[in-house]
Structures are given as structure tokens and as C-alpha cells.
UniProtKB/TrEMBL annotation:
Oligomer and partners: Homotrimer.
EC numbers for this chain: 4.1.2.14
The species this protein was found in: Zymomonas mobilis
Matches recorded under CDD domains: KDPG_aldolase
Family: Belongs to the KHG/KDPG aldolase family.
Protein name, UniProt field: 2-dehydro-3-deoxy-phosphogluconate aldolase
Enzyme class label: lyase
Amino acid sequence: MRDIDSVMRLAPVMPVLVIEDIADAKPIAEALVAGGLNVLEVTLRTPCALEAIKIMKEVPGAVVGAGTVLNPKMLDQAQEAGCEFFVSPGLTADLGKHAVAQKAALLPGVANAADVMTGLDLGLNRFKFFPAENIGGLPALKSMASVFRQVRFCPTGGITPTSAPKYLENPSILCVGGSWVVPAGKPDVAKITALAKEASAFKRAAVA
């Protein structure tokens, strides 16, 4: 069983995926892994998401997790589908306690100091800073990180290929979440692979 810290350290960019057509699941996963991005967050926003997760897990090297996990029931469903980690847009006591009890690798969303403090009270110290660009971006995250020295973040929301390297220069940031690696529409495997190769080459700060 992986912990969320080890998942966050596998690649500098965690693709955030919305799978509309189940037929696209395997080609997208194969293209991302071929490009060096093996940590895949499949958001639970579409009817085929759980089935897509099962298919993507069959791709050698893929570490597949569920995004948009809103409550304990959704976490359980994602676990049954074989997810290795779980990402939520925010944090509730019910979800946090359930994840801790299940020893699930949860990356909960936080937007302010109170959210982080709630997570710390639950025994969590790895968070998604979300929606990053809409809540102050890198300057806001730097301010938060200076207070919570033991915490590490994955900023997500509005991150681009231009801004991602700047975020990754900060030692409190283990990875960034991004949807740009898989453009909307029918997947162009060659393009996805090229974008993944570019993203996988981003340098990260030396993080303890």
C-alpha cells in the first residue's frame, strides 16, 4: 500500500483527467506513462470514471488514483475499483477520518490556514492547494508554507506549463496537478506523449 507522500514524489506533474469515453482510457494512460508521467488522477466526474480507472490500472507502470472524491462512500467505491490514492477538492472531518481509518492515501484540498489545521488535527500533512491560481497562486502558497513547515503541497487549478516550473522551485511543493497534458477532445496520443515528456522533465527543488 502506497502512502500519499510517496505518490507525490513519483513525478513532478500529476495529470488531472476527465474521461468522457471509456475507449479513451487505455490510450491516454499508455501515452502518459510513455511520456514519463505515471501518476494519473482520474476525476469521478463522469459515469465511466470508475471503469476507466480499472482499465488504466492494467497499463504497466501506471499508478492510478481517483479525483473529486467528496465523501467516504466515493472513497470506498474508488478503493474497490483499485485506486492507489485519492484526491478531494476540499476536506471534511468525515472524509478525513474515514481515510485515516482505512489507511487510504488521501490528498485533500485546502484553500486556507484553517483547512490545513483541520487536516493536521486529523493526522494529515500532505495537501492539494486548490484552486491554486484563483486563491493567490504561488505567493499565497509560499505564505502558507512558511507557517506550516511540516506540510507539503500539490497545487492544482489553473497551473500551466509556464507556471508549473516556478511552483516546483519551492521546496514545500512535491508536485503540481495539471490538465494541460491531456487537451480536451479526442486524444491525440502523440501530442499527449510529447506534452508528458516535457512535463516529466520539470525540475523540482530538493525536498526533505
